[in-house]
Amino acid sequence: MATISLSEPDAARAVPPTARAVRLPTQWLGVAPFFLFAILFLIAPTAYLILGAFQTPNGAFTLNNLAELWQPTIRAAYWISIKVSFASAVIGALIGLAIAIAIVRGGLPRWVRSATMTFSGVASNFAGVPLAFAFLATLGRLGLVTIILRDIFGFNLYSTGFNILSFSGLTLTYLYFQIPLMVVIITPAIDGLKKEWGEAAATLGATQWQYWRMVVIPVLWPSFLGTVILLFANAFGAIATAYALTGSSLNIVPILLYAQIRGDVLHNPHLGYAIAFGMIFITGMANVFYIWFRTRSERWLK
Amino acid sequence: MTETYLSIQGVKKSFGPTTVVRDFSLDVGRGEFISFLGPSGCGKTTMLRMVAGFEEPSEGRIVVGGKDVTHLKPNQRKIGMVFQAYALFPNLTVAQNIAFGLRVAGMPKAESAQRVQDMLKLISLPQLGDRYPYQLSGGQQQRVALARALAPKPRLLLLDEPLSALDAKVRVSLREEIRSIQKELGITTIFVTHDQEEALSISDRIVVMNNGRADQAGTPFEIYNRPSTRFVANFVGTLNVLEARVLDAQAGSVDVAGQVLALDRDLAPKRKGDMISLALRPEAVSLGRAGARTGALAATIADVHFLGSVIRVRTKIGDSTVSLDTFNDPTMPPPVSGTPAELAFAPRDLMVLAD
Amino acid sequence: MKAGKFWAWLTFGLGAAYFIIPLLATMEFAMRMRRGTYSFDAFAVVFGDPRFQQTFGYSVVAAFFTILLGVLIVVPTAYWIRLRMPHIRPVIEFITLLPLVIPAIVIVFGYIRMYGSNSPLPFLGSARGTDALLVIGYAILALPYMYRAVDTGLRTIDVRTLTEAAQILGAGWGTIIMRLILPNVLIAVLSGAFLTFAIVIGEFTVASLLNRPAFGPYLQNIGANRAYEPAALAVITFVVTWGCMSVIQMLARFAPKSANRPD
Ligand SMILES: Nc1ncnc2c1ncn2[C@@H]1O[C@H](COP(=O)(O)OP(=O)(O)O)[C@@H](O)[C@H]1O
Ligand SMILES: [Mg+2]
User: Fold this and answer.
1) ipTM of the complex
2) Can you give the CATH number for the domain in which A230 is found?
């Protein structure tokens, strides 16, 4: 380096600093709008709430807000939310997986697959208020299925304790977008299962079940788990369907937070921050767990 | 040939209205290395998959070691199979892949570990047991696939174009390795390929398939030098084809573009006036010096390609083209295009093609 | 083999029933408005309701601006990352996935607290500002889908070679983006746009908390007060969503097949 620069000392000294000074910022300039946008409207608002969760109204540090989350109504809200999200995610993932396997590997005609994929694209986006209307029209007290069960099969759904406004009703409703979302995401993973793996296993003497246990399940497991976590977060933050279905009678976290934002029903603004923090914490932990799982036990993944 | 071990008897396979394999019969001796050779789509894979048990023949039987396995499930046939795309289980290490068949069979851990070590040594990758498939090159993956197939001591080894996905150099070294491992273990093997050089270089016998049929089965020497059909002759090696008219079937004399040629065989049932196709390998023809060889035809040199140690010459006899290679002899002047030349060959090298 | 096929049909059949029955039931319910006979009265009432027209129009406009904002943010970024800064790609991907982890209600809660009329950026001080914040929030919600769509589109063309070729021919950055990159990823951008539209059109949480007269809060309001109209609205929304997805499917057929990877 030194010997080379000796020949042209002035040029060597003058050029590199300017080149460096000009190059770095222009390169980052290209992504500056994105980062500005993300910081202002995604990261800062979230960080603001997280900080607020640890502050008193005067700005002093406290853990009281978090401690107050433990009060029965809030605790119950978290618990129901977790239950509904978990149940709809796991059941949705299992059913979605079964459907995806059926359309990819079941030897069904081609149109079945393309029709299912198109429909799944639609249904996974058919969430929110209209979905609640659809399920009220189906399984509400005057819904078509309720009436058919009652008039034709003599079966009174509501006498069994079923209620569309309950845990099981909400879960059943959420499945309407959870299952298709699973189908959309997991189908490519099932396409990735090579037919030859099954044939190789068969020539090596494996039964269908042994092949599944030793190859298919371990191979699909990371995608499966990742999608379950996504479905969980998807349901955990959803409010519109539940709100339209139940009004504010079902005490789930997003509805509680919604009421708190509108009217400070908890009489402590910073408790709202704590609830928001709790939501991020739970979905965040689910993702951390997933990342940890992937890096730790799946060394075969590239 | 030693005793018959695998016997394919009159097998036919149809998918709906299309018949993909027909009238396929073949006896394979114990320890024999057989290649199925043919263009893509001719039914090689389908025939192999029937032996493996993934397809059921529409007609005919498949017998292994005296036992009819036609309707046996693949996982009860004790067959080792190697696929074109390696098909290693991505979630298992090399050692676990090789141990798969042993684990499934319930072999004790220690014994299975020993066998995996032996197999790794056999494929000369003793250090790579703990790697995952994605950490291996294509050639290494295919060797692991071979070890995996061989570990449970199968009765038959089936390979479906195992070298097609590899680059040329690896392809040659691996095919020799496959052959030497096969000889060492003495395992009966069917090797599917569309590459004639591959088939010629490593097989005990080759079955040339055409449109679902076995056109000819024979040693590489027979297939190359005594092709029984026009298809086989064309598919294996380069071939010069001459159209000829029979002058005297019994004496074996024919007319090629106005020149009389004496063949050393009886051409019956062809009769005087019939057209026949004669084939000649480029290496069976030489320029000029007829010498001991008795066949000779006058031709015109059409063009000359200098290829280094060899000179490829294309000549015209009437409408037919005959290519031949001559060694580059620095002491001789090279052939000149447009000049007349005499083609010399031994009459018994002329093949009469069945249509 | 045969048994497998039976189970596949059974699984598919049960799934299809679960998804089709609510649609039929909703349609049937919507048609019950006139006593004793089926009619399209509920649809007529809905379409004749001026608030339906206003709120639906408002959401369409909001969706349009959301798409515009999303494209302006995402296309140059994704392009630049592919061209010059592939090493920060994981960071960008992580950020674009955050909206799937942070619930919308949390994000909008943050907006309400940060961008009030007394803050340095008083978005909420005026109606126009609130509209802008709504569009921004929607752009954030759509970010994962928009980024994914555009990035997939860029993957199929060889960005670097195309750009260098254009530069050799003397093209400036504006020309390169407008004439070269955008046309090539247009299909991908459009797919992202229609997905964004489907997400935005009936969105409830953000619009309701920002007090905007959008379609989502209107739906909720009708649901709380009427019997048959909600079912009609559900059918309409489903048709709109279906339309968006069909357009995306059709676009996918026109998408350029990968230039540098044969498949
Ligand atoms: N499952 C199947 N259904 C219908 N046709 C098939 C099936 N499998 C193979 N074929 C057809 O059979 C023919 C032979 O195929 P294959 O045995 O794979 O040929 P090769 O291995 O010699 O290239 C091809 O024309 C192929 O299209
Ligand atoms: Mg084949």
Assistant:
1) 0.87
2) 1.10.3720.10
The kind and range of the H/E element at B59 are: strand B59-64
Region label for A80, one of left (φ > 0), alpha (ψ between -120 and 50) or beta (otherwise): alpha
Say if residue A226 is in the same domain as residue A163.
Answer: yes
User: A-chain residues within 8 Å CB-CB of B77?
Assistant: 203
Question: Six-digit token pair at B49?
Answer: 């998959």
Classify B168 as helix, strand or coil. Answer: helix
Judgement on whether residues A42 and A130 belong to the same structural domain of the protein: no
Asked if residue B252 and residue B178 are part of one domain, the reply reads no
Q: HSE on the CB side for A234, CA within 13 Å? A: 27
pLDDT tens by residue, B306-349: 888 888 899 998 888 888 888 888 887 888 888 888 888 888 88
> Cβ–Cβ of A197/B89 closer than 8 Å?
yes
A255 and A140, same structural domain? yes
- Quickly tell me which residue has 């004793």 as its tokens: C36
Helix (H) or strand (E) holding B247: strand B240-248
Judge if A111 and A239 occupy the same domain: yes
Domain span including residue B72: 4-235
**For residue C235, is it within any domain?**
yes
Percent of chain B surpassing pLDDT 90: 59
Q: Is residue C179 part of a domain?
A: yes
**Structural tokens at position C162:** 């195309």
Domain CATH code at residue C234: 1.10.3720.10
Q: Is the pLDDT of residue A37 over 90?
A: yes
User: In the beta sheet, which residues pair with residue B327?
Assistant: B310
User: For residue range A213-255, what is the model confidence (pLDDT) as tens digits?
Assistant: 999 999 888 889 989 999 999 999 888 898 888 777 778 999 9
CATH number at residue B299: 2.40.50.140
Residue nearest to atom 11 of ligand 1 (CA): B20
Mean pLDDT of B268-295: 77
Q: List the structure tokens of B225.
A: 């030098």
Structural domain tally of chain B?
Answer: 2
| Chain A: closest CA distance from residue C169 (Å) | 22
Q: Is residue C197 part of a domain?
A: yes
Say if the Cβ atoms of C238 and A112 lie within 8 Å: no
User: Would you give per-residue pLDDT tens digits along chain C (263 residues)?
Assistant: 457 788 899 999 999 999 999 999 999 989 988 888 888 888 998 899 999 999 999 999 999 999 999 999 998 899 889 888 888 888 998 999 899 889 999 999 999 999 988 888 888 889 999 999 999 999 999 999 999 888 888 887 778 888 888 888 888 877 887 777 777 788 888 888 888 988 898 899 999 999 999 999 999 999 888 888 899 999 998 898 888 888 887 877 776 554 433 33
pTM for this entry: 0.81
Q: How far is the CA of B41 from the centre of ligand 2 (A)?
A: 7
DSSP assignment string, B85-103 = T----TTS-HHHHHHHHHH
Burial of A268 per CB tally in 10 Å (0-12, 13-18, 19+): middle
Secondary structure (3-state) at B10: strand
Q: Helix or strand or coil: residue B325?
A: strand
Q: Which residue ranges have their beta carbon within 6 Å of ligand 1?
A: B 15, 20, 38, 40-46
Instruction: Look at ligand 1, atom 8, and give the residue with the nearest C-alpha.
Output: B46
Is C220 in contact with A103 (Cβ distance < 8 A)?
Answer: no
Q: Which residue range(s) make up the domain with A82? A: 70-297
Distance in angstroms (rounded) separating the CA atoms of residues A156 and A194? 48
Contact B162, B142 (CB under 8 A): yes
Distance CA C136, CA A38 (A): 10
Q: Are residues B310 and B224 in the same domain?
A: no
What are A139-194's pLDDT values in tens digits?
888 888 988 888 888 888 888 878 887 888 899 999 999 999 999 989 988 988 89
- Taking CA atoms, A123 is separated from A100, A116, C19, C191, in Å, by 15, 10, 8, 17
- Structural domain for C196, as ranges: 40-254
Residues B224 and B97 in one domain: yes
Q: How far apart are CA B115 and CA B98, in angstroms?
A: 9
